[in-house]
Amino acid sequence: MAKKAVSTAENQIKDRDIQREFGRVISTGTELLKIKKERKAITVSPALDLALNGGILEGCWTLVAGEPKSGKSTTCLQICANAQAMGKPIIYLDVEDKLEAYNLEGIQGLDRDNFTIIHPPREEGESLSAEDFLNIASSLIKKPEYKGAVLVIDSCSDLLPRSEMDADTSGSLRATLPKMLTHWIKKTSQDIAKTKVLVLVIQHYITNTSGYGKLKNPDGGQELQYKAATRMDISKTEPWLEGDKKIGQIVHWKISCSSMGASGTECVSYIRFGKGVDKEKEIIELAEAFSIIEKAGAWYSIPFLAGNGEFEEAPKFQGQSKLYDFLVERKDIFDQIKEKVNEMVNG
């Protein structure tokens, strides 16, 4: 017993020497569990949060893939707005230089003054290469003012290495981006975890011409796939119509993996033009599915509000649009419905 005690004491001294040289690099399982559980989840929308088992954890890598114009950037901008509400800074690599006025004006809650956008130079200056964008991102996430930031790469598909940028246009060039991304991911991974930065990487699908496996795969290389704690794929979209008017689009998601533990889940989100991800619409659909909101013909009602002091009977609304307007105005009741939906899902 005495020999074991001496051995333990010697190990503790060695551990202190290691941590004095390298910093806090040794933890017990209990200590590490506490550190991991202290990470906060950033919400997306009611439907996606349920599919993700609560949202997306800070300090993790998330991939968002889909066809063109399917809602990838809009969803990421909504995540940025939600993160800003938590006091988090935003770094947005606008690699494609495609952020338009409707993107920046059409997301509810987005604070444009506290939104750092890295984009190609205006008027003067050389075009930014993939190395430039990634090095700028690496530099910013190390700064104290960007601790806990959301870093969006929109998109990795348009990152162009300097060697390819300077070469003559040719279809025979060998793509070097996957190898570069692999190096950058490995180089920054420890900084990402340490500063609790959430990385959102937008990917495009590329056609698989090998004849094996899936017809289309997200680009960027395998290292991104291995590193991602959350992967959100848009399987299809369809127009969101009110009468003959298109007011947005319905987005069908497949969650392959989640930093919050869920996997293999599918869900539907709604993107309303001029607003972004429509949380009220999603909560109405979910609450109706769980009978928290009841529908009879064209009438909707909220039974649990009956007799609570403010309402003697369950409030009724003719048509979903009137119920929608009510929930937009009454955030307190929207939050109550959302809580009941979460209770139903979590049992």
Structural description of this entry:
The chain has 347 residues and is of the alpha/beta class. The chain folds into two domains: 42-166 and 173-276, 3-Layer(aba) Sandwich (Rossmann fold); 288-346, no CATH class. 39% of the residues lie in helices and 23% in strands. It contains twelve helices and 15 strands. It has helices at 2-22, 29-37, 46-51, 72-85, 101-105, 130-141, 162-166, 177-195, 222-227, 279-289, 320-329, 331-346; strands spanning 41-42, 56-57, 61-66, 90-94, 116-118, 150-154, 198-207, 216-218, 230-242, 245-257, 265-272, 276-277, 294-296, 299-301, 316-318. The N and C termini lie far apart (49 Å). The model has no long low-confidence stretch (mean pLDDT 89).
Architecture per CATH nomenclature, i.e. the level-2 architecture of the largest domain: 3-Layer(aba) Sandwich
Name the average pLDDT.
Answer: 89
Structural class of the secondary structure composition?
alpha/beta
Unreliable segments (pLDDT under 50, ≥5 consecutive)? none
The total beta strand count reads: 15
Give me the CATH fold name of the largest domain.
Rossmann fold
Could you name the CATH homologous superfamily of the largest domain?
P-loop containing nucleotide triphosphate hydrolases
Number of alpha- plus pi-helical segments: 12
**Nearest-angstrom radius of gyration?**
24 Å
Number of domains: 2
Largest sheet, described in full?
10 strands, mixed
Order of helices and strands: HHEHEEHEHEHEHHEEHEEEEHEEEHH
Cα-to-Cα separation, first versus last residue: 49 Å
In terms of DSSP E residues, the strand content is 15-25%
Main CATH class of the largest domain: Alpha Beta
Task: Specify the helix fraction band.
Answer: 25-40%
Global outline: globular
